[in-house]
Design a protein that fits this description.
The chain is an alpha/beta fold. The chain has one domain: 3-Layer(aba) Sandwich (Rossmann fold). The chain contains seven helices and seven strands. Strands 2-1-3-6-7 form a five-stranded parallel β-sheet, with helices on both faces. Helix 1 runs parallel beside helix 7 (about 180-195). The longest helix has 17 residues, at about 180-195. The radius of gyration is 17 Å and the shape is globular.
């Protein structure tokens, strides 16, 4: 059954030769070939301010430049995040983007004043895939670092707003990867896109 797929390219460098963009394009090609509706958001092309206070996070409206991105998240059934591992986690620009679009009223709702309880997740019914490129071997990141940066994204952001299941794909040793290896990665992403998983 066709799904509405949103692909978020989280590499802050707009260079079109970045592997993250090739992985995103392969996923998109596979998804479109299977009849899925695909939208891409490349955060390197967006202009938006950093949030600096709780007041801004909780009460200020979304910047106009991100209104479309927030609507794309609300309307998506499956979201794919693709980014490089920087200092063990996502790049700062992707985190800043998520802080903007995963705000109250968009991704979750605070409990009513005086009623207590927990925040309500507003993005239930959506699934996600987190695709991460890195310089180290992927198994080493999982084994030694326990994949903490990605686990934090899954648990503290995506699951918090109701996105589940969240699948992970890690591509390690990307700097020295052969052309054949990269082609295998692109084929893998295309296959994921066909199934929209």
């Amino acid at each position: 059954m066709p799904r509405r797929v949103l692909i978020i390219i989280g590499h802050p460098d707009p260079d079109p030769k970045r592997l993250c963009r090739a992985l995103a394009a392969s996923y998109a090609d596979g998804a479109r070939s299977a009849g899925h509706e695909v939208r891409l958001i490349d955060i390197a092309t967006l202009d938006f301010p950093l949030l600096r206070t709780m007041e801004e996070f909780a009460k200020q409206p979304l910047p106009v430049t991100l209104e479309g991105a927030a609507q794309a998240i609300r309307s998506a059934e499956h979201i794919v995040f693709i980014f490089p591992l920087w200092l063990g986690t996502m790049p700062a620009l992707l985190k800043a983007y998520l802080e903007q679009v995963m705000r109250p009223g968009v991704a979750f709702a605070y409990p009513e004043v005086g009623k207590g309880g927990f925040a309500g997740a507003l993005l239930k019914g959506r699934s996600a895939r987190v695709v991460v490129t890195m310089g180290m071997p992927a198994f080493f990141y999982r084994l030694w670092y326990l994949g903490h940066g990605i686990a934090g994204m899954r648990r503290n952001i995506l699951n918090f707003v109701g996105i589940s299941p969240v699948r992970e794909t890690l591509f390690g040793m990307v700097e020295g990867a052969s052309v054949a290896t990269r082609q295998k990665w692109l084929a893998k992403m295309r296959a994921f896109g066909v199934c929209a998983v």
